[in-house]
Amino acid sequence: MTDIDIDPMDHPDLWHGAVSWEPAGRWRQPWRLPPRLQGRAYAPELFEKAKAPAGVRAAMISDARELTLELDIGTEDPSPLDLLVDDELVQRAQVVAGKSQLTFALPGRRAAIELWLPQHGQTRLADVQLRDTTGTTQPAPQAPRRWICYGSSITQCRHASGPSETWPALVARAEEWDLLCLGFGGQCHLDPVVADTIRDQRADLISLCLGINVYGAVTYSARTWRGRVADFIARIREAHSETPIVVMSPIASPAREASTNAAGVTLTDLREGVHEVVADMSVDDSKLHLVDGTSILRLAEADLLADGLHPGPLGYRTMAARIGTVLKANLSSG
Fold first, then answer.
1. Per-position DSSP letters for 208-275, written without gaps between them
2. What is the end-to-end Cα distance of the chain in Å, rounded?
3. pLDDT tens by residue, 255-312
4. How far apart are CA 20 and CA 28, in angstroms?
5. Counting Cβ atoms within 10 Å, is residue 16 exposed (0-12), middle (13-18) or buried (19+)?
6. 115: nearest Cα among 185, 67, 73
7. Residue 260: which of 309, 226, 221 has the closest Cα?
8. Other C-beta atoms within 10 Å of 114: how many?
9. How far apart are CA 117 and CA 89, in angstroms?
10. Which residue spans within 258-322 are E strands per DSSP?
């Protein structure tokens, strides 16, 4: 029996969901946006969110008896880690800010092992090891489809019970898709560096959930919103000419539907703008699809919102069930 180091920089085939990993001494920082783009983004808040490993996970087949790692978390009140064995949640490890060492018990037989890192909280890791194994560890089978999912905190899913139960994770697990989650709490402003990141990644399906952060931060006005949505989609389409792109407008948020922000627009206005742009662009693009966010979480379902804006655990499960069906249909139809 032996111990195996599964450092993400030495064994990238075992790790999924990060655009890149950056070394800092013995620590490894997962990035969900390329750090080289920071200089021209002028969005430090966005890149801080990109250090939170939503959707980042290790996936392997192993007969190890333990998995150990060290964490360094730079955010108060981080999300937990989830350990799955044969796609069943067997341990949810609560963590705190600062450095800690974790040990996960494994079955000691050949099994599919997944370790999902916290969806909320800047996270670095070190000394990731599989212990007491015969040495038969190998990557999990390659997923047949890669899905890039862009959005706000409602896509990052801080209020989900754990990282394997965010709505993107639930959909990806159910459909056996390889997830790249680009959900950035408070930072879904259609930044050009995000469009460039999506452009440069391999994708079989792309989903874009647009509007809620623009409402809250007053990013665009009625004059600029539609053009920004159209340009963002077009920028991605240039590199993904045959990939289905599904654009979802904001889910229901009763307090914001008819209330104007400082730019004089309501959430309903922004949603209608998304609908108009996708309707216009899809005339010449049969692989561009619209999902009305109020069909995914409805006005009458405000009790599924934890704070009037973000879904709670049941809300995210409801979203996963509904949008998963739509995404699968659009992927099949092209």
1. EE-SHHHHHHT---TTTHHHHHHHHHHHHHHH-TTS-EEEEPPPP-GGGSS---TTS--HHHHHHHHH
2. 48
3. 999 999 999 999 999 999 999 999 999 999 999 999 999 999 999 999 999 999 999 9
4. 10
5. buried
6. 67
7. 221
8. 20
9. 13
10. 288-291
16 or 331: whose pLDDT is higher? 16
Asked whether 175 and 328 are in contact (CB, 8 A), the reply is yes
Total-model pTM:
0.97
For residues 207 and 154, the answer to whether their CB atoms sit within 8 Å is: no
Average of per-residue pLDDT values in the chain: 97
pLDDT digits (tens, 9 = 90+) for 43-68: 999 999 999 999 999 999 999 999 99
Q: Return the SS3 of 14.
A: helix
Domains, in order of start, for the chain: 2-139 (2.60.120.260), 145-333 (3.40.50.1110)
**What is the DSSP-derived secondary structure letter of residue 32?**
S
